[in-house]
């Protein structure tokens, strides 16, 4: 009984420090060994025949994203890799690293792709979601998708949020205290009806204009590129 209780507590602690990609459907449960969210690029969960045949259909210009955050705050990055079995995620879907605060569900009804990708109907791809905590350690999850002209977005009932979650893009602070890219600052506040953006450039991935790419700190860049 004591061993069972200890194992339960260890699993609960592990889950509380990680995150879940609930839409598009993740490749596999990254909480179950030999998977580990600490492993780059996809938590040691590879594309299989089963996952390849069960890809989530995504609209050609972007689709819904739904994530369960278990940290009180974390940095977040969304990347895309094209191909049926790719481990290369070289297309950034949010050039500025995002700072997410609050734990719970955040759902974006539509996260728009860069307009110049020119995705064709039937193209296979994979999404990579990265979170980085206060220790600088990165966590990874991936989802296999297939772009389709017939794909639909999550309905309002399916895309519910935990009230109070917020998402901010990081901006650089100059030596004089001014902010590079401050005009592009956007706050994304989650409500039950869906995540909504406010700000002068409330774009991020949720509307066509992208935000300017900013240099990231060396530690965060290393975490994004190399994993923990």
UniProtKB/TrEMBL annotation:
Range of residues in the leader sequence: 1-17
Top-level taxon of the source organism: Eukaryota
Keywords: Cell membrane, Glycoprotein, GPI-anchor, Lipoprotein, Membrane, Signal
InterPro entries: BIM1-like, BIM1-like_dom
Coiled-coil residue spans: none
Membrane topology: Lipid-anchor; GPI-anchor
One Pfam family it belongs to: BIM1-like_dom
Presence of keyword Lipoprotein: yes
Localization (cell): Cell membrane
Domain Copper acquisition factor BIM1-like residues, every copy: 16-164
Keyword Endoplasmic reticulum part of the UniProt annotation: no
GO (cellular component) term, any one: plasma membrane
PANTHER family: COPPER ACQUISITION FACTOR BIM1-LIKE DOMAIN-CONTAINING PROTEIN, HYPHAL ANASTAMOSIS-7 PROTEIN
Protein's name according to its UniProt entry: Copper acquisition factor BIM1-like domain-containing protein
